[in-house]
Design goal:
Elements (H helix, E strand, L loop, with lengths): L2 H17 L23 E7 L1 H4 L18 H6 L4 E5 L8 H8 L9 E5 L7 H10 L3 H16 L2 H17 L4 E5 L14 H21 L3 E3 L2 H4 L27 H15 L1
Parallel strand pairs: 1-2, 1-3, 3-4, 4-5
Helix pairs in contact: 1-5, 4-7, 5-6, 6-8, 7-8
Length: 271
């Protein structure tokens, strides 16, 4: 292997490691003197979940342990007059298990609104991206996809999300509103990537199970697929970052524009 290819492989490995962060989310409380139009009428808001909730890919990071971004949808929602982000424990790499164990306990008393994006890491997001799109291996990619599809099809994801929403409800009480956001399809079709169409379809299937579990347990679900349509990897105006050895952290996550559109979609549901 040439020195250049060795370097590229090493950098790509770093990207995969970044996608597969532990999900241990240190408490992160939003701080600041306030904002124009804010005040006592603001609703106390907490943002939970994985890298899509933290804002990985959006740049302008508040930390590099969880890749919480100033351009994330929770930070953008905090900038409105209606919501005050009082805690932001969302963390890259978090599954439903880590969210339940590490993030739910950090929800402050008096929380009135909670947002949640989660489920992708349960089905092996990092492994799928690695084996299907970075170091492409037909055998490994197929194995990862079958595992993910099985977890979606056999009720595992439904049950995990349902249990998580129930735990959040127990923490915040009956009057608080819980809003669960889905995932965008990552790729514009047709795509040069062999597995793009299948991963897009699997994303929709995951969203369906997350939505069903959320709604059945009293949460509101926000579907982002239609808004992101035409803006996937390979489109002329992508809202998703393609893999690049020059910006490995951002790979396969929304960019700043993508998170701005997430905020636009979630704002009415949380308000």
């Amino acid at each position: 292997m040439s020195a250049r290819r060795t370097l590229a492989a090493a950098v790509a490995a770093v990207a995969v490691a970044a996608l597969a962060l532990t999900g241990a989310s240190p408490a992160f409380a939003a701080k600041g003197p306030g904002k124009p139009g804010g005040g006592s009428s603001e609703l106390a808001y907490v943002a939970l979940g994985d890298s899509f909730a933290a804002g990985q890919g959006g740049g302008s990071y508040l930390d590099t342990s969880c890749y919480r971004s100033r351009n994330s949808y929770p930070q953008r929602l905090d900038a409105t007059a209606k919501l005050k982000l009082t805690a932001f424990p969302a963390c890259a790499g978090a599954s439903t298990v880590e969210t339940l164990a590490s993030q739910v306990p950090s929800i402050p008393a008096g929380t009135q609104r909670v947002s949640l994006t989660v489920g992708g890491n349960d089905v092996g997001f990092a492994s799928v991206m690695q084996n299907c799109f970075v170091f492409v291996s037909t055998t490994s990619c197929e194995s990862r996809l079958v595992t993910a599809e099985t977890m979606v099809g056999d009720g595992t994801i439904y049950n995990r999300v349902a249990s998580l929403v129930q735990a959040i409800r127990a923490k915040v009480g009956a009057q608080a509103k819980i809003v669960v956001a889905g995932y965008p399809q990552l790729f514009q079709l047709p795509s040069r990537y062999a597995y793009a169409a299948r991963v897009n379809a699997d994303t929709s299937a995951l969203n369906d199970q997350v939505e069903a579990a959320a709604v059945a347990n009293g949460a509101t679900f926000v579907d982002v697929e239609a808004a992101f349509a035409g803006h996937g990897i390979g489109s002329s105006t992508p809202w998703i970052n393609a893999f690049s050895i020059f910006n490995t952290t951002a790979a396969f996550h929304p960019n700043s524009t993508g998170y701005a559109n997430y905020a636009t979609l979630l704002g009415p549901a949380l308000g």
